[in-house]
Design a protein that fits this description.
The protein is an alpha/beta fold and 254 residues long. It has helices spanning 19-29, 51-58, 84-89, 100-106, 110-122, 135-139, 143-150, 183-201, 203-208, 222-226, 243-252; strands spanning 8-12, 41-45, 64-67, 94-97, 127-131, 166-169, 210-214, 233-236. It is built from 11 helices and 8 strands. It has an 8-stranded parallel beta barrel with strand order 1-2-3-4-5-6-7-8, surrounded by 4 helices. It binds phosphoenolpyruvate. Phosphoenolpyruvate is lined by residues 12, 170, 175-176, 214-217, 235-239.
Length: 254
């Protein structure tokens, strides 16, 4: 953590929780927020069908509403897809882009991610851009090269970083496996990412942009991960499905 950047904890519920289940979670989770540390931002990114209900329940709670994805176009013949203006209409406050599960399942690459961030920007929604290497890439010593390639998504923004942009370093081998990166491994990758931001946009922007760690964050490991100087909070999958576990992670971010 660095006092200059507000910590952020995002719950990525993936394809879990119906609108009714989401409401039951919030029934239990929202009363706990009086104990949240001051200055920590908290966001919940439910699946699309639960966005409206979760948005209504989060109103005036101080907890941000997030989306898990967005389409590359603002509207048109794209059956089953969801656009940035639609998210805006639902008062979504941030959206994930480039999650490794979408890179894997939908073959999403850097230029597609750049387009998604552009659509979000047009709608005034900050993006949380996810990057990270596979186990094979790490074992071949390619982590830095993979992160460098994934950061070329910002070629779409030559004049400055997209306002409000957040990065999430999520090593693919750590996601949903119970095998988190060590704090030092995560810090090293975050340092590389901050260096790439500095090269592209200068030191002031690089120091201001938040970089979250994601990959098997739990109440047991969150505090040590978040204590690293370049780790500004977490993007949390599995542990964010349980109110008391996500609460413990929010507390660790404070
Ligand atoms: C994620 O999918 O963004 C994630 C980090 O999942 P988990 O916490 O379950 O590893």
């Amino acid at each position: 953590m660095n006092a200059k950047r507000a910590p952020l904890a995002i719950a990525n519920w993936k394809m879990n929780k119906s609108p009714r289940e989401a409401a039951a979670f919030l029934d239990e989770f929202l009363p706990r927020r009086s104990g949240f540390p001051e200055g920590v931002q908290v966001a919940i990114a439910p699946a699309f069908p639960a966005l409206e209900r979760v948005g209504r329940l989060l109103l005036h709670s101080g907890v941000l509403l997030g989306a898990q994805d967005v389409h590359t176009e603002a509207k048109g013949a794209h059956t089953g897809e969801v656009s940035a203006p639609m998210l805006k209409d639902l008062e979504v406050q941030l959206a994930l882009v480039g999650h490794s599960e979408r890179r894997r399942d939908r073959k999403e690459g850097e230029s597609e991610c750049g387009k998604k961030i552009t659509r979000l920007l047009e709608a005034g929604i900050p993006a949380v851009y996810c990057v990270g290497e596979t186990l094979e890439e790490r074992e071949k010593g390619e982590t830095d090269a993979v992160l460098t390639r994934q950061m070329t998504c910002f070629d779409a923004f030559p004049d400055g970083p997209p306002p409000g942009i957040v990065l999430a370093y999520e090593p693919v081998w750590a996601i949903g496996t119970g095998r988190a990166a060590t704090p030092q491994m995560a810090q090293d990758a975050h340092r590389v990412l901050r260096g790439l931001l500095e090269k592209r946009y200068g030191a002031a922007h690089a120091e201001a942009i938040r970089i979250l760690y994601g990959g098997s964050v739990t109440p047991a490991n969150a505090r040590e991960l978040f204590s690293q100087p370049d780790i500004d909070g977490g993007l949390v999958g599995g542990a964010s499905l349980v109110p008391k576990d996500f609460e413990a992670i929010v507390l660790a971010a404070g």
